[in-house]
Amino acid sequence: MSLLCAGDRVALVSPAGPALASRITAGAEVLRSWGLEVTAPVVRPWSLPYLAGSDEARAAEFVAAWCSDVAAVFSVRGGYGCLRMTDLVPWKDLPPRVFVGSSDVTVLHTELNAVGQSTVFGPMPGTSDFVDDPLAQARLREVLFTGTRSWTAGTPVVAGTARGVLTGGNAALLAASIGGPRWAPPVPGAIALLEDIGEEPYRLDRILTQLLRAGWFEPVSGIVLGSWTDCGDVSAVLADRLSGLGVPILGDFGFGHCAGSWSLPLGVTAELDASAARLTLL
């Protein structure tokens, strides 16, 4: 993944739900304080208030921003909607860019990683997880500008080591993508990153069962679990659904919908040492 530097131009896009204009402004100001030149998205009214415009408008904004003279593209927020526009984007034709997003944006990470583009799963500038969290801001900036290579955090769940390409993101969106026209399980040996928000234990059980039955976990050599905010106590569900896979698992790693979230690259090769609670890029 290319690194950013002061003076780079970056674009903000709204591929999912609408962000508050005040938060977009605040997030853009943080990025400008890093020395970046920022182009903000157009705020569009739409008949479905949970979408930041029609599928065609959101896809067109995404492609236009990506193909402009920018070093990076940031999604301003998640919510819902990315899954509706994936068929409208010419993924193989997109030039290399740095891309940042999380939550619902998981489906865009999957599409980009599938055509060989690495991405960053991190907090988005139109959300409180970024605007109101200086630690999460600092951790994203470090990944983008200096290239963080190793993270030590979390609690070992299943001991062991694994080496493979980092993949995954929001568990519900990974399950929702099953059966799509370009859907495929992770590459052999992949290390899966999983997190979610607002899913009660039985719903998380359903999500993980969907992924298991679809064969999504079959190529996976290791798992890193992030935050499960507003999901209740999901420890028993995670153990029941995942511990039998026979791969190393590191829990409570601190990425996703949580304070001070780590920003983690996807589509790059890393080594997981669950016993030492460490993830290292190779």
TrEMBL record:
Domain LD-carboxypeptidase N-terminal as annotated: residue spans: 10-122
Keywords: Carboxypeptidase, Hydrolase, Protease, Serine protease
InterPro entries, alphabetized: Carboxypeptidase_A_C_sf, Class_I_gatase-like, LdcA_N, Peptidase_S66_N, Peptidase_S66C, S66_fam
Domain LD-carboxypeptidase C-terminal residues, every copy: 163-272
Family in the record: Belongs to the peptidase S66 family.
Protein name per the record: LD-carboxypeptidase
